[in-house]
């Protein structure tokens, strides 16, 4: 009788053992990977925002040189720019290089200014058309070497340059009145048969972006204001929590687009420290535009700041500008407009 009872008890226990094995097997299964976020085809490669016209998908951006000294204020056409670089020129005044991803929707832009070699050294990394009014004559051979796809107001190329008569009548100096009629740009480049398609290595986003619906704070401390001393000019950017953007000032005054009346604002702010020196008797600058492993920079967005390294491939104008954390990992940034100040070391105050 006793052996039979034992056998019966063992049989009763078997289902419990099978249930336990099923639980263990379920635990050992790896979780399914989350599906990749679908990115719209009309993603703006400079901002990460899906706002390109259909005709601009896969097409080259346009870089425009803009006068930025206080006597030339207010500018117009700059609010629409997707990326703005601000870098010192002669006398430690600054100049803008404004990039527009959608070549079909460029506005009229004024005042247009001349080229300095370090601006196209940066624009080439975006495979951009380049628009300016005059050049530093000493860099003509360099620009030819770059095979720059350029439109220059001095020669009136394309028929979309002119002088703003209202500004002339208002007493602006001549050099603060040149405009570029970007509304004509698409039809001109198409008629001329210029290369419109991005090169294969530039058809992905210019930066590594966070998710479409993510607005992340950089790893580091809080930062709601940046003051940048360029020498003869200054810039300040103050965080607006409601819009999650930084509002820009130029030498103590809000920087306004004269056509829209809006203050320039940016989702992302970069301050890149670099070596800048005077290279000739005129005061033209020598600027280290490619950075490196030991470079110092700061990424500011969403009320926070992170110390970074920045670089392009050494002596390679066609390479991308990239940003890395202090461990050497490429960082991702928030989607939106970006302001990049390239300046002397230790000339920024973060609050």
Describe the protein's architecture and organization.
The protein is built from 5 helices and 22 strands. It has one domain (54-350): YerB-like fold, CATH 3.50.90.10. With 351 residues, it is α+β, with helices and mostly antiparallel strands. The longest helix is centred in the first third of the chain and has 27 residues, at 2-28. The model is unreliable at 1-10 (pLDDT under 50). Strands 1, 2, 3, 5, 6, 9, 15, 18, 19, 20 and 21 form an 11-stranded mixed β-sheet that branches. Strands 10, 11, 12, 13, 14 and 22 form a 6-stranded antiparallel β-sheet that branches. β12 (245-250) and β13 form a beta hairpin. Residues 46-192, 226-340 form the DUF3048 domain. It comes from Dorea acetigenes. It holds the Pfam family DUF3048_C. This is DUF3048 domain-containing protein. Residues 24-37 have a biased composition (Acidic residues).
């Amino acid at each position: 009788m006793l052996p039979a009872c034992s056998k019966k008890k063992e049989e009763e226990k078997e289902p419990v053992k099978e249930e336990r094995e099923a639980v263990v097997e379920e635990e050992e299964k790896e979780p399914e990977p989350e599906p990749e976020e679908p990115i719209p085809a009309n993603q703006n490669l400079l901002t990460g925002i899906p706002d390109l016209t259909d005709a601009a998908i896969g097409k080259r951006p346009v870089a425009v040189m803009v006068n930025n000294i206080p006597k030339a204020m207010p500018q117009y056409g700059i609010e629409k720019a997707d990326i703005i670089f601000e870098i010192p020129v002669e006398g430690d005044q600054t100049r803008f290089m404004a990039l527009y991803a959608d070549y079909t929707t460029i506005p009229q832009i004024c005042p247009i200014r001349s080229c300095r070699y370090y601006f196209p050294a940066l624009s080439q990394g975006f495979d951009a058309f380049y628009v300016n009014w005059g050049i530093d004559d000493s860099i003509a051979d360099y620009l030819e070497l770059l095979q720059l796809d350029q439109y220059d107001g001095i020669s009136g190329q394309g028929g979309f340059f002119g002088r703003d008569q209202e500004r002339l009548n208002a007493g602006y100096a001549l050099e603060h009145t040149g405009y570029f009629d970007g509304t004509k740009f698409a039809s001109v480049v198409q008629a001329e048969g210029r290369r419109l398609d991005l090169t294969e290595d530039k058809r992905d986003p210019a930066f590594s972006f966070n998710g479409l619906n993510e607005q992340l704070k950089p790893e580091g401390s809080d930062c709601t204001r940046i003051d940048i001393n360029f020498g003869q000019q200054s810039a300040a950017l103050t965080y607006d929590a409601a819009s999650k953007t930084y509002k820009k000032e130029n030498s103590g005054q809000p920087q306004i687009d004269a056509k829209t009346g809006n203050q320039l604002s940016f989702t992302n702010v970069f301050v890149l420290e670099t070596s800048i020196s005077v290279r000739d008797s005129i005061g033209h600058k020598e600027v280290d535009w490619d950075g490196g492993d030991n470079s110092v920079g700061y990424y500011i967005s969403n009320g926070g700041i992170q110390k970074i390294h920045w670089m392009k491939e050494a002596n390679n104008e066609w390479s991308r500008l990239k940003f890395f954390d202090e461990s050497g990992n490429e960082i991702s940034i928030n989607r939106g407009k970006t302001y990049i100040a390239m300046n002397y070391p230790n000339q920024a105050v973060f609050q």
